[in-house]
Structures are given as structure tokens and as C-alpha cells.
Amino acid sequence: MTQQIDNKANNLIYLDNAATSFPKPPEVYQAVMHAMQEIGASPGRGVYRTAMEASRLLFQARESVARLFGAADSSRIIFTHSATESLNMALQGVLASGDHVVTTSMEHNSVLRPLNEMSGNGVEVTVVQADGQGHIAPEDISKALKKNTRLIAVSHASNVCGIIQPIKAIARIARASGVLMLVDAAQTAGALEIDVVRDGIDLLAAAGHKGLMGPQGTGVLYVGPGITIRPLLSGGTGSDSTEVFQPQGLPEGFEAGTHNLPGIAGLKAGVEFILQQGVAAIRKKEQRLTRYIAERLSGESTISFCGPGIGEERMPVLSLSIDEMDPGMLAFMLDRHYGIAVRAGLHCAPEAHRSLGTFPEGTLRVSPGFFNDSNQVAIFCDAIVECIQRR
Questions:
Q1: Least buried of 193, 202, 251, 369, by fewest C-beta within 10 Å?
Q2: 14-35: pLDDT as tens digits
Q3: Residues 207 and 267 grouped into a single domain
Q4: What is the pTM of this model?
Q5: In b/e form, how buried is each residue of 36-65, taking b as 16+ CB within 10 angstroms?
Q6: How many CA atoms lie within 13 A of 158 on its CB side?
Q7: What CATH number does the domain containing 53 carry?
Q8: How far apart are CA 46 and CA 359, in angstroms?
Q9: Which pairing describes strands 203-207 and 219-223: parallel, antiparallel, or unpaired?
Q10: CA nearest to 212, candidates 127, 275, 167, 151
Q11: What is the pLDDT of residues 291-324, one digit of tens each?
Q12: Which domain holds residue 328?
């Protein structure tokens, strides 16, 4: 088996889709190149043919994203450069001094760092603690609410252990209390069914380069009807040029500067691929691959998994620790000797690791995607077993 695995070293087995999905659908690469080579112009910056084509592409991309998320009005889809930017736009656009926000210990630094900075400017922050598996209890969210609570900010699923939070139940609490609900869907957009109306989501932030299968440098923020936020940036919008202050209209007022049109073109292609395949079909395959890894390695006495139990629902994310093995060194060995790409460490979510009991060492995270296959995850499992035997 060693020789068979070593022969794969020159052909990367990519199992870090929780960071960035790879490879992308062929249509994504084609769309990026078409936008660069055949369009070239910027949306809203002219009435000549290619500028108008750029504007049409931008509109069509909004329509596709809106369709995926069940949003009736595509103008409420704002394109950003990352989920981080989307989250900052939502947090800084909604919260002001004197407001209270409830969040959780399972959040990514893209939520916790902005909130920590805002707490120095009069925003009160309550962090609800997860249990040892990473689960957030809706009743704990409810207990944390105050008279001045403006927002609940919660990740749909953990990027560390894959646990899926009960956002519908939390959204019902938010709605009953007159509080806005912000969902970080970086790990679930495109990989789990999301309907912003059905699920009671007021603000939804997503990365374009993960489950949406678009290029890096793309992100999305959905802003629900009747919700007003402040722009994060000011500058050129291609419209209302006589205004001396930043326009407040959606979406143009929130997309200051030149759009990443090649990235958005690729994101549009990724979203349309998902719509064609069906989110349910994508999830079924990713679940099967994840379950194979969990079941195959669960018999190894030196391996510990964090998060949900093996048979419980989760995203295609598994974090594991091996007795007396540093996760970073293990990731290095998998890359150098087996050509396998996974991620080790704290995954930009140190509070989540504290909740799970894996701080400060972190874990080895494996996250299969739609374009992985059974043979690749089998090779990963064989490689892990060999690394244990070679300790």
C-alpha cells in the first residue's frame, strides 16, 4: 500500500475544501477567462457594448445567487471580496454604540475580531458558550438577550468540526424579540439548503470560493427587506455621481470601487453549476465521503474526533487528533510523503477550539468536496494509519 500511496504524491489529493473548494467546475474557469478576454470592461462605467455586457453579467450573477438563497429581490444581493468583508459590512453596518449583540464561542475570527474591536466603541457583546461538541442551545441565546439587543450573529456551521447550528430555532427567537439575525454561511452556502425567507434570516454572509465553487476574492451579503445598513466603504459606484456622500441604495451604494468582474463571472458559473446539480445531490456525495473517513478511522484507538458523533448530521468537515502527534507535523507528512492537502492548527477559530477542548494545539482538519472521490479518501485514511504506525 505504501508504494501505491507514494505514487500519488505528484498528483495532489486536495482535502481542504472548508478553506477553498478545489478544483472548480470547468465552467468557472471558462467564465473567468471569458470575462477577462472578451468583456474586459467594468459594470456601470459606460454605455458601450462591453460595458453593457459587464452590467448584464453582474445582474445575472445577482439573480443566480438570489435564486439559490430563495431571495425574491436580487438587488438585495451585495457582492463583496470575501465572507470576511460581508460579515464586517453587516456588523459595522447595523451596530452602533449602545447596541448589544449576542454571538457564540463557535464563531470564526471574522465575527469575533470585529466585535471585539467594536466593543471598545460602545457595542456590548455577549458570547454564548457551546457545549463540548460545539452545539449552541437556542435557549442559551434567548437567555442572553437584553432590552438593547440589536443583533444575533451565529455561524450556520463550524469550520472546525462541521457541527450545524439550529439557525431556524434561533431565528424564531430573534423574530419574536424584534432582533436581527445574521448568519455566517461560509461553510454551508452551496452545500446545504438555505432559504432566507423560510429560515428567517435577515442578513446572510457567504464566501464565494468555498461551497459556492467560485474564485477566491468573491463574497456575498444578503440584506433582507426593510433592513437598513450603513456602507462599509465610500467611493465610486458608477451611479449618482453628483452626490457628495455615499449613496444608500442597494446594491450599488454598497459596492464602491471597481467590481471583481472575472471573479463574479466565475461565481455566477459556480452557483449555476450548483443549481443544475442540486444542493441535495452535492450534500449527499459529500456526506458519503465524510462518513467513510469517520467510520474507517474510528477504529483507531489513538485517534480522537471532535464535534458531532460519527452518525450525527454535520457538514463535510472532520477534525481529528492523534495521541502524541503534532497536527502541524502530521499535515506536513501527509503533504510531503503522500501528496495530500489538509489543514492543521486553530483554523482562525480559537474560541471554537476552546469549546471543543482542542486549544491550543488545534487539530488536523480534513474536508472532502464534491470533486473528491472514494479512492482519494481511502488513500487519506491509509496514509493516516501509516503515519500512526511510523510514529
A1: 193
A2: 999 999 999 999 999 999 999 9
A3: yes
A4: 0.94
A5: eeebebbbbeeeeeebebbbebbeebbebb
A6: 33
A7: 3.40.640.10
A8: 53
A9: antiparallel
A10: 275
A11: 999 999 999 999 999 999 888 999 999 999 999 9
A12: 2-17+278-389
Indicate the pairing of strand 340-341 with strand 13-14. parallel
Mean pLDDT of 71-80: 98
Same domain, 9 and 41: no
Average predicted confidence (pLDDT) for the chain: 95
Tell me: do 265 and 352 sit in the same domain: no
With contact defined as beta carbons under 8 Å apart, do 80 and 264 qualify? no
Lookup: cell for 99: 447596541
Q: Alpha helices, DSSP H only, in the chain? A: 2-6, 26-34, 49-69, 83-94, 109-119, 138-144, 167-177, 261-277, 279-297, 327-338, 350-356, 374-389
Cα–Cα distances in angstroms (integers) from residue 32 to residues 41, 81, 86, 269, 307, in the given order:
13, 15, 22, 9, 37
In a shared domain, residues 198 and 72: yes
What is the three-class DSSP state of 104? strand
Whole-angstrom distance, CA of residue 64 vs CA of residue 268: 7
Residue partners of 280: CB distance under 8 A and separation at least 6: 193
Pairing between strand 124-128 and 100-104?
Answer: parallel
Q: Cell numbers for 361, please give them.
A: 494545539
